[in-house]
Design brief:
The protein contains four helices and nine strands, in the order H-E-E-E-E-H-E-E-E-E-H-E-H. It is α+β, with helices and mostly antiparallel strands. It has one domain: Trna Endonuclease, Chain: A, domain 1, CATH 3.40.1350.10. A hairpin with a 5-residue loop joins strand 5 (82-88) and strand 6 (94-97). The chain is globular and about 40 Å long. It starts with a helix and ends in a 5-residue tail after the last helix. The model has no long low-confidence stretch (mean pLDDT 88).
């Protein structure tokens, strides 16, 4: 399965789960290739609103470019909704992270899988109103 197909499948999986929990959902297909910055999906309920960047990655670290992280964080701030990074690890569950959870370098934001498992919110936590 190509990286795009794997990522799109993970996005659709998460979208269905959140929609089943009562979120209104919008997925931005091709968000990574869109010339305007935007998150992969938007999830909204009356009391919860999230801009979500989805990653399906099996590596020991998740790395996002400074440019990508800053663009989506700015988009979310402008829209007035919380920004989450949702990391789906193979044969594991989803972990939801905040920008501040990542270590910042000159060019990237990165987090280890170990740290993400320790501090990331689980899907159940997000569905039950967990906040950062």
């Amino acid at each position: 399965m190509s990286h795009y197909n794997k990522g799109a499948a993970a996005e659709r999986e998460l979208m269905k789960i959140l929609e089943a929990d009562g979120f209104s959902m919008a997925r931005v297909a091709g968000s990574g290739s869109n010339p305007l910055p935007c998150p992969d999906m938007i999830a909204m309920k009356k009391t919860k609103k999230y801009a979500i960047e989805c990653k399906s990655w099996k590596g020991a670290h998740l790395v996002l470019s400074k440019e990508q992280m800053d663009e989506i964080a700015n988009w979310s701030e402008n829209a007035g909704i919380d920004f989450l990074i949702a990391w789906r690890m193979p044969r594991k569950k989803w972990f939801f992270l905040n920008q501040k959870d990542f270590n910042k370098t000159d060019k990237n934001f990165l987090i280890s899988a170990k740290k993400a498992k320790e501090i990331g919110l689980t899907l159940n936590s997000i569905l039950n109103g967990g906040v950062f």
